[in-house]
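In the current project phase, the collection of sequences with tokenised folds has grown. A representative record is quoted in full directly below:
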Amino acid sequence: MSGPLHGIRVFDLARILAGPTCTQILGDLGADVIKVEQPGKGDDTRNFAPPFIRDDKGNETGESAYFCSTNRNKRSITLDLANPEGQALARRMIAKSDVLVENFKKGGLAKYGLGWEQLKKDNPRLVYCSITGFGQTGPYSSRPGYDVLIQAMGGFMSVTGEPDGPPQKAGIPIADIMAGMYAAVAVCAALRHREVTGEGQYIDIGMLDTQAAMMSIMALNYLATGEAPRRLGNAHPNIVPYQSFATADGDIVVAAANDGQFQRLCAFAGAPELANDKRFKTNDQRVRNRDVLVPMLQKIIAAKPSQHWLDGLEKAEVSCGPINTIKQLFDDPHVKARGMALKMPHPATGKAPVKLVASPIRMTATGPDYRHAPPLLGQHTEEVLKEVLGMKAGEIAALRKKGVV
């Protein structure tokens, strides 16, 4: 086993997507992630289906693709936190853990005796990460938060979509995913702080906060001018041309990110006069005159097929590319060469592996490793209780009989 977080144990009380994204990143980097699930039910995303992953005969397994997307490199145990015995077991395991990640509503774990204030005295080295919709403070802190709600309230939908169309959410749950990524970064930073000082700490991740941070250049465009950015479809607010264009047989993206690329684009397009037009000579001028320039380029690009532009602009060193489907993405030779499609053996799929998306992290010495496929519900309960707490088979059987695990 390798990875920079090898030797770190994560007690994972996270569900749905933001929290599991965080803990999958930690698991990919070598942490031992113990995923705690409700007996008989498990993470809600086990039922976010179809589709399900399929076995070696092509049959649905009952394991949802959604769950498998963010629960690799975890061991699943079942534990009833509403049961006092379950709470006691949880506290014993947390005492032997380095990190706790949870995304219950504010104060949700305190009623089980598992809040930060209740645990830090017994485990001052614990890194405790809470992920909620709105954080632990502020007037919205008690509200539940969901991805589409955060995209809406966080300004994302106001700048996504066609100029004359309605506000649009992203095609993926970007608010959840990015909250999980920020949480993973924070956990790694807190572990480094603990390495230096010996002290754990509490991490408060609010999805609305992370969405605000994600607004990036759009946020700064507003803060610099006081004017709320408008929707531009696939165009860029600060670079022109940098958007999709219809060709004679499809659509492509052209991203002429500087004046040199714009000049080469115009030369290849047979319209060098555009590069010399004082309205378009610099990016500043092109942004101010986008409503004049873009229709001219649209007419030129629509006259030739996509491959003409893709081949020619690549040779001219102008950034461009196709607009791929997900199938085309994973069929792409570069994506294949980078190993972004991952296959792992899975207990539900027989001889066929489960197909997953690999971690994008590349490191020369301690990169990701893949030890556990997304687990079956409670697959590792007995293994973990024996390993972490030294429990005997009879003790575990008694707990099962009482519904504690």
